[in-house]
């Protein structure tokens, strides 16, 4: 944030409930909702955004915690990364807690929120591949007390966008009580934006493995064939950790090739080789996927 922004917002509203926030956005269509402001204020300071008004979400207590509902956790969109990184939350959804702890330096984790990570939809958002692997569902609040649900992957892919005055209120995540792992690679030592990230979730009840790769595309990628193949090799009724190292290596390569495919030549022309940077990225994804699955099965 800065003390010398070229222009300040014309109006600031601080509702205390989700429906009040929706009503404020209905009354001020040009207003922008703000929670942690980690992305919004960066855009304002860079001169990329000049909101006519702000609707602050920080006083809405109902979206700052979570509760349980039919085998799921209903997570408030106002949960901060710092809160999700704590041990009690990690016991429920380990991969999301790991992603939250990796979200950046303390000032970002203390301010940034789950809902902001989703709505901003930056490719490097650490929570996004985890939510994609968990097949999380968004609960969206609209005018007149309306509530509707949509898979988080639909919003990230642009298949179901937020309508005017709608807000993401909650995120429904299944409580699998099974191993989950999130790993990411950055271009430097310590907290930083991901160059690639991988979330792996085991679902013993459905005998499935779910994997999502983040940061390498505009939205998290799900290598569905790789998931199905590796799930068929796991002994779900016995020692899951008995999977051969060769299978782990092959899974990593399968995931990387699915998410970063070889180029295809046009007509009779030979396809050009991958650039060294892309080859390095593919190797990074393969290593992350291999290690994540190995840790989940350990």
TrEMBL record:
The record's annotation in InterPro entries points to: CO_DH_flav_C_dom_sf, Diverse_Substr_Oxidored, FAD-bd_PCMH, FAD-bd_PCMH-like_sf, FAD-bd_PCMH_sub1, FAD-bd_PCMH_sub2, Mopterin_DH_FAD-bd
**Which GO molecular-function terms appear in the entry?**
FAD binding; oxidoreductase activity
What Pfam families does the record tag this protein with?
FAD_binding_5
Query: Is Oxidoreductase given among the entry's keywords?
Result: yes
Q: Identify the residues that the record assigns to the FAD-binding PCMH-type domain, covering every copy.
A: 4-178
Task: List UniProt keywords, sorted A-Z.
Answer: FAD, Flavoprotein, Oxidoreductase
Classify the source by domain of life: Bacteria
Task: Give the matching Gene3D superfamilies.
Answer: 3.30.465.10, CO dehydrogenase flavoprotein, C-terminal domain, Uridine Diphospho-n-acetylenolpyruvylglucosamine Reductase, domain 2
User: What's this protein's name?
Assistant: FAD binding domain-containing protein
Identify the species of origin. Answer: Streptomyces beijiangensis
């Amino acid at each position: 944030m800065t003390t010398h922004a070229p222009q300040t917002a014309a109006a600031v509203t601080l509702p205390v409930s989700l429906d009040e926030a929706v009503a404020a956005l209905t009354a001020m269509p040009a207003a922008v909702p703000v929670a942690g402001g980690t992305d919004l204020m960066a855009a304002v300071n860079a001169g990329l955004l000049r909101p006519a008004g702000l609707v602050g979400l920080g006083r809405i207590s109902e979206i700052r915690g979570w509760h349980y509902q039919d085998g799921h956790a209903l997570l408030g969109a106002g949960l901060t990364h710092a809160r999700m990184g704590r041990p009690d939350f990690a016991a429920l959804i380990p991969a999301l807690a790991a992603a939250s702890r990796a979200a950046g330096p303390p000032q970002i984790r203390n301010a940034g929120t789950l809902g902001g990570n989703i709505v901003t939809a930056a490719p490097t958002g650490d929570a996004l591949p985890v939510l994609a692997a968990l097949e999380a569902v968004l609960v969206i609040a609209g005018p007149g007390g309306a509530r509707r649900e949509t898979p988080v992957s639909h919003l990230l892919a642009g298949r179901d966008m937020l309508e005017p005055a709608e807000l993401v209120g909650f995120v429904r995540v299944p409580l699998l009580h099974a191993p989950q792992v999130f790993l990411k690679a950055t271009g430097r030592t310590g907290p930083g934006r991901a160059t690639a990230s991988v979330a792996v979730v085991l679902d013993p009840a459905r005998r499935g493995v779910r994997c999502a790769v983040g940061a390498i595309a505009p939205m998290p990628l799900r290598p569905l064939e790789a998931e199905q193949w590796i799930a068929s090799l796991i002994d779900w009724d016995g020692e899951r950790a008995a999977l051969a190292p060769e299978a782990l290596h092959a899974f990593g390569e399968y995931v990387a090739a699915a998410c970063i495919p070889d180029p295809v030549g046009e007509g009779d022309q030979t396809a050009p080789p991958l650039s060294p940077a892309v080859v390095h990225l593919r190797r990074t994804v393969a290593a992350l996927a291999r290690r994540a699955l190995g840790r989940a099965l350990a």
